[in-house]
Design a protein that fits this description.
The chain is of the alpha/beta class. The protein folds into 2 domains: 2-79, 60s Ribosomal Protein L30, Chain: A (2-Layer Sandwich), CATH 3.30.1330.30; 85-249, 3-Layer(aba) Sandwich (Alpha/beta knot). It contains 9 helices and 13 strands. The protein has a 7-stranded parallel sheet, sandwiched between helices.
Length: 250
């Protein structure tokens, strides 16, 4: 089962709209700026025909009004609400397929750009889902989809009443719980990420909450050389996820 997110009405920008159509997102209509020619117009015309999506040509002023000043790049899609996935059902499906789970748990990630960037890396690296708490998380909306370059149309996002309860459920499926922090932790390359893994990432301001740190089986860190305190959380996510890919492909 899925649970509807806050209503998502609009998606704007060339790449996000094209990738959303290709990813099978439920789109009611695509609005294209009058006078658009070339590759974009041809691509959208073919994709909309293939997926049975109405394509309407409208004045630039209408797109600007709909996007409320955001850079629409001449194209806006009217889309149905995205949906949160049920975590227990997703875990059961992974167990049935005997897939080594790779999950990302987001603690206090409220910036939609970070949320989208993490989703983009997670989808590219083959993560099975993002897990977010009911409160204190960026919204699953059109802005997030745009920030993810459309990845949020392809990777499940599960929402739990709390990350602690999500951790209990995840652990019951034999998945190791890892938390990213600098202090009292092992270097990333010493962690066995071939095992089914759920990785907790915290906000740059507050880090991971102490109860979640205590709930983790191991703490990991990305080795650093310079003097800057830490990586941006979305950059850290990409590094950790790629190490998981590297280990699993060896």
């Amino acid at each position: 089962m899925t649970e509807s997110s806050d209503p998502v009405h609009l998606l704007f920008g060339r790449h996000p709209v094209v990738e959303a159509i290709q990813g099978g997102l439920a789109i009611d209509k695509v609005l294209l700026q009058l006078g658009t020619r070339g590759e974009l117009e041809t691509t959208l015309r073919h994709l909309c025909k293939e997926h049975g999506i109405p394509l309407q040509y409208v004045p630039k002023e209408k797109l600007s009004h709909l996007s409320k000043g955001n850079n629409h790049q001449g194209v806006v899609a009217l889309i149905a609400p995205l949906s949160y996935h049920n975590l227990d059902e997703l875990l059961a499906s992974l167990a049935e397929k005997d897939d080594a789970a790779l999950l990302i748990l987001l603690d206090g990630i409220t910036d939609v750009r970070n949320f989208g960037a993490i989703a983009r890396s997670a989808e590219i690296c083959g993560a099975h889902a993002l897990v977010v708490p009911l409160q204190g998380s960026a919204a699953l909306n059109a802005e997030a989809v745009k920030a993810s370059a459309g990845a949020l149309t392809r990777i499940p996002v599960c929402r739990s009443s709390s990350l602690l309860s999500a951790i209990d459920l995840i652990r019951s499926y034999g998945i190791q719980i890892l938390a990213s922090r600098l202090e009292n932790s092992l270097p990333l390359y010493e962690i066995d990420l071939k095992k089914p893994s759920a990785i907790i990432l915290g906000s740059e301001g507050k880090g991971i909450q102490p109860p979640l740190l205590r709930a983790a089986d191991q703490h990991l860190r990305i080795p650093q050389v310079g003097l800057t305190d830490s990586f941006n959380v979305s950059v850290a996510a990409g590094i950790i996820l790629y190490e998981a890919v590297r280990q699993r492909l060896v």
